[in-house]
Amino acid sequence: MILLEKVIDIVATTLKVNKDEINKDSGLGTIAKWDSLNHTNLVLELEDAFDIGFDFDELDKIITVEKIVASLEDKGVTI
Amino acid sequence: MNSKINTILDKSSFKNISYFDGQSKLSYDEVKTCTFNLLKNIPARVNGVQQGICLLMERGSHYIATMFAAWQAGFYIVPLNTSWPIQKNNEIISKIKPAAVISDDENITSLANGFKSINVINLFEKNEGLQNDFSLVSPLRPADVAYIIFTSGSTGEPKGVVISAASFRSYVDWTQRYFAEYSTSKRLLLTSELTFDITMGDIAFALAFGTSIGVARQNTNIPSVLALIMKYEIDVLYSVPTTHLALTAFAKRKRGADISCLKLILSGGDRFPWQLVEDYKSLTQGAHFYNVYGPTEVTINCFAVRLDNKENLIAEDKPVPIGECFDSLNYVLLDEDNIASKEGELCISGPQLMMGYYQDKNLTDSAFTTDPTVSFVQRLLYKTGDLAYEDDGLIYLKGRIDGLVKIRGYRIHPDEVSKAIDTLDGVDVSAVVTVGKQTDAALVAFIKLDQGLEFTKETIDSKLKEKLPAYMIPVDYVFVETFPLNQSGKIDKNALIKRLL
Q1: 3-state DSSP call for residue B320?
Q2: What pLDDT digit, counting tens, does each position of B124-158 carry?
Q3: What is the pLDDT of residues B373-405, one digit of tens each?
Q4: Predicted confidence (pLDDT) per residue in B465-474, tens digit
Q5: Could you say which DSSP state residue B381 is in?
Q6: 3-state class of B433 per DSSP?
Q7: Residue B272: what pLDDT?
Q8: What is the reported pTM?
Q9: Residue among A33, A40, A57 minimizing CB distance to B249
Q10: Could you give the CA distance from residue B233 to residue B211 in angstroms, rounded to a whole number?
Q11: What is the pLDDT of residue B2?
C-alpha cells in the first residue's frame, strides 16, 4: 500500500465517508463532511497513526490529502 | 482631522492598532495611505449624501485595515464574503449600489459588470503625489451609517441591518467601561466570519484599547487557529461556541499545544455547553470567560456576564445566563398581553438600536414596538424574538418566540427540550426540531454523543423522563457525528429537518 492510499483510508475512516469520495485534491471544505471539527480530529488521527507530530507552523498547510502526504514524506514516513 | 465629530476613530488608541494575519502586517501608516487612496478614487459624499463601499476579498489584515480606512474617509462599509455564492454577493452589491467594491486578484473577476471595483493592492500603494491633507477628509459623523451587515431572513431573502456610527460608538464606549480591567490586552484574533457582527465586536474592542487585530485566514482550520494563538501570544479570543469547542478539544490532545496566553475569552452567537468554561480553566491559567448576547439589530451585543467566577451558576443541570443588560441600554420582557413581566419576549431600547433594515420599511416597522412602561412618549423597543426570563437578577433565554410549537395542546419550545438533553451524561450537544403541522406536530431530537458512546432511544427516554414532562419527550432521536452549521456558525435546523424528509 502506498502512503497516499493509507492517508485516504484514514481520512475516509475519520470523516465516515466512502473511500472513493476521497482523492488527492480533497480537503477542508471541499466535501461537506470535511468540516472544521472533523479536520481537527483528522490531524490528531494522522499523528497517532504515523506516530509523528505536525509542526505548528505547518498546520495551515496540511489541508488537502496531497499536502498531508507531502508533509508525511518530508518526515520520512514510509509504509 | 476634526476629532471632535469623529464618532468611532477619535480614540487615540486607534493609531496604535496593527493588523496581522501570519502573512502581512499593517499599521496606521498603511491605513492612512489607504484612506487617501480611497478618496483619490471615489468621493465619500455626493451632494452631502454618504456613500458606501462593499468589501469582497479574502480574509486577512488588508480586509480589516480597509474597513478602518473607509471609516476614516467617511464611507460606510458592507462586508461581503468570498465563501458566499457569487450570485448572493452580486445581489447585495446591486442593492447597495456602492461607490466602489474593494476586491482582490482572486475575486475581482467574479463581480458583475456595471460597478466600479478597486483592487485592494492599489489602495495600499504608497504614492508620492498623494495629497496627505487631513483637512480634505470628512470622517464619520454620529448620524452616518457605520456598517450594513446582511443576515439571512426567515423568507430566505438576505436582510441588511443598518447600524449608525453613533450606535457603534455606544458599543465601543460600553466595551471600554465593561472590559476596563483588560485594557492592556495586546492582541486579539478574528475567527468569526467577517460578515458576522462578532467581528465588529472584536473591532470595537481594538478601538477601545488599541489592541492589535490578528485575522485567522483559515478560520475553519482550527489547528491553524491554535498555531496562530501560540505564535502571536493572543490574549483575547471572541468566538462562537462551535469554534471554542473544537479549539479546546484540539488543544487538549495535541502534543505541545499551549493556549495559556489567553486571558479573556468571549463566547457569543449561540448557547454553549457549560463544560466549555471548565475546559478553558484547565487549558489556561485562570483566563476570564464571558458569555455575551445580542442580535445584530442591537449593534453586536446587549447582555454580558462573566462566568468563570460563578461556580454556583456553572453546573451540568443549569442553564447558562446571558447575564445583565448593558448599563447604556434598557430591556423589558413583554408577555403575550404586551405587559412587562418576569418572563416574555426580550425587548431592548437605547442608543444601540439599528437604524432599520436596508430598503425594507415593512420589515423595519415589524421589528420594533413601543415601550408600554413609558406612557408619556413613544419609546422604541427592538423585539429580539427571544423568549427570556429573569432569575436572581440575571436573564436567561428559553428559545425563539417563533420556534414555539403547540403539541397536543401544550406550548413547547424545542430549544428547551434540547437544553434538557444537553445536560444528560454522555451527550455532547443536541438540537430539537419540529416535524409535521398542527395535530401531527412532533419533536425529533438530533444528538451528538460523547466520543465512543452509544445510546438507544430507550436509554435517552428514561433519562429524559426524569427531567421533562412526558409531552416534551421527543418521538424520535437521530444520532449524528456532526451538525450542519449555517453562515453564522449556528446549528442549521432547516438542514436537519430536510434530512428527515
Answers
A1: coil
A2: 998 776 667 777 788 889 999 999 999 876 555 78
A3: 999 999 999 999 999 999 999 999 988 887 777
A4: 888 888 889 9
A5: E
A6: strand
A7: 81
A8: 0.87
A9: A40
A10: 13
A11: 43
B117, B111 contact by CB (below 8 A) = yes
Residue B369 corresponds to which cell in the numbers above?
414596538
* Residue B422 main-chain phi, psi, to 5 deg: -60, -25
The whole-number pLDDT of residue B269 equals: 86
Where would I find the H helices in B187-321? 197-209, 222-231, 241-253, 275-283
The residue behind cell 468611532 is B8
Most confident range, picked from B86-100, B117-131, B394-408: B86-100
CA–CA separation, B466 vs B105, rounded Å? 58
Contact A40 B250 (CB under 8 A): yes
Closest CB to A16 among B256, B481, B485: B481
B186-197 pLDDT, tens per residue? 999 999 999 999
Of B221, B246, B250, nearest to A28 by CB-CB distance is: B221
Q: How far is CA B132 from the centre of its chain?
A: 35
d(CA B289, CA B191): 17
Is A39 in Cβ contact with B223 (below 8 Å)?
yes
CB contact B224 to A (< 8 Å): yes
Contact state of A37 with B245 under an 8 Å Cβ cutoff: yes
Count CA atoms within 13 Å of residue B409 on its CB side: 1
What pLDDT score does B43 carry? 95
Contact state of A44 with B220 under an 8 Å Cβ cutoff: no
Q: Of A16, A32, A44, which has the smallest distance from its Cβ to B253's Cβ?
A: A44
Strands B212-215 vs B19-20: parallel, antiparallel or unpaired: parallel
With a cut of 50, list the residues of chain A below it in pLDDT. none
Give the closest-approach CA distance of A63 to chain B in angstroms: 8
B253 in contact with A at a CB cutoff of 8 Å?
A: yes
Amino acid at the residue B14: F
All three cell numbers of B70: 473607509
Query: Is B221 within 8 Å of A16 when comparing Cβ atoms?
Result: no
